[in-house]
Amino acid sequence: MIRRSVKKIAEMLESTAYGNVEQMIEGVQIDSRQVDKNSLFIPMIGQKVDGHSFVEEIKDRVGAVLWQKDHLPYPEGIPYILVEDTTKALQLLSKAYLEQLHCKIYAITGSNGKTSCKDMLCSIFSQEKKTQKTQGNHNNEIGLPLTILEFDEDVEVGILEMGMENRKEIEFLCSLAQPDCTIITTIGSAHMENLGGKYEIAQAKCEIFENMKDYGTLFYNHESKEIEEVLKTLDFKHKKAIPFGKDTSICITSDLKFVKDCMTFTCSCLHSEVKVHALGAHQATNALPCIALALQEGIKEESILKGLSEMEMTKMRTQLIQLGPCKILDDSYKSNPESAMAAIDTLMSLPAKHHIAVLSDMLDLGKDEVALHENIGSYALKSGIDVLICCGPLSKFTAKAYNGQWFETKEECVQILKTYISQDSAILIKGSRAMAMDKIVSALIREE
């Protein structure tokens, strides 16, 4: 993490420091509950809470604070740096710090699969280089700067996830991170409410290509045709864009084999069979750009194979949990039509007597949200799922299309599921993050 004196941080921000400017800082916090005597606290100003109001109570256990000039009076008894805007100062500090490091930055965006690719890349590059990655969902204008400031001085590779809801957001994140190479995983229906359609989503995602460094390479999913449509309109200059997936030179060349919580396959890039510590055909596709990028950057084949076989997936992303004879497929972190269908496919690949899907609402889909929820119900029916249980107002349409069960509360869903967790069952739990479907997973674990 960042280790600088208050004076040096002020210089990086082109600002003025007051108090003990030689105080050493180790790490940055925006949560007053997480500070320690060496932290730099950066008070964020939200709609309901202003972080400046917590400074008085933490001043005896924090190293220093950034302080927005328009907040009077200024703090006493603690080193502080005056800035025009604390949020912009956080972003500027991360950019200045990254410019002082000697590392490669690889950035990932896409409607689905960002976190999985991040985990895969980090595990692969960690075999040969000191590698750090985005923690949790720190992929926006606040989280990405915090991730960069967590990088150690001797980091060699940084893996950054970039999320977005509107145009120009990825452009801004790239202005901070200056990625060397990039990946676009997929273009899906998420954020259609804000952007209008998949082509507009692809335009926003392709900002990662436009704003990476010269001589960089973008690896993009060939099956997301909107990406290629957008790329045709852009100036490549000194950059490359390489497709991966079906009918490309970076593709899967065998059937997938599933064993417990792993899968194996062969691909066009490697001589040996690939074993990935993840489930689902979509995860095999996610591995392709990671393999290709690693090979381009000089990582050995044995390191790639070892990294993929040892990787640990972030929780709530197609995470397999064994509860006696029952398998829980926890994919509760997010949901949209494309990821829901992929999760259903993964569920049906698991050996079990009963296949049960528990689905909640997919948010931010715009004017077609009802039809898209109905489509998932129809897809579940065609896939051969034995039982469909839905929870959430929009999921009524999913349940109706399948002729499945709909409940108003998660507690009711859990009561129904109790009968299956003692049997040879595979249960998928999925919904948008705001639907908090992970609570059902936790309840089932407690019931075991």
Report what the structure shows.
This protein is of the alpha/beta class. The protein folds into three domains: 3-84, MurE/MurF, N-terminal domain (Udp-n-acetylmuramoylalanyl-d-glutamate--2,6- Diaminopimelate Ligase, Chain: A, domain 1), CATH 3.40.1390; 101-310, UDP-N-acetylmuramoyl-L-alanine:D-glutamate ligase (3-Layer(aba) Sandwich); 319-447, Alpha-Beta Complex (Protein-Tyrosine Phosphatase, Chain A), CATH 3.90.190.20. It has helices at residues 6-12, 55-58, 86-100, 114-125, 143-150, 169-177, 192-195, 198-205, 207-210, 225-231, 281-296, 301-310, 337-349, 369-383, 395-402, 410-417, 438-447, and strands at 3-5, 16-18, 24-26, 28-29, 40-41, 64-68, 80-83, 104-109, 131-133, 157-161, 181-184, 217-221, 240-244, 257-259, 262-265, 274-276, 319-323, 326-331, 354-360, 387-391, 405-407, 425-430. The protein is globular and about 70 Å long. The mean pLDDT is 95. This is UDP-N-acetylmuramoyl-tripeptide--D-alanyl-D-alanine ligase. It catalyses: D-alanyl-D-alanine + UDP-N-acetyl-alpha-D-muramoyl-L-alanyl-gamma-D-glutamyl-meso-2,6-diaminopimelate + ATP = UDP-N-acetyl-alpha-D-muramoyl-L-alanyl-gamma-D-glutamyl-meso-2,6-diaminopimeloyl-D-alanyl-D-alanine + ADP + phosphate + H(+). Residues 25-96 form the Mur ligase N-terminal catalytic domain.
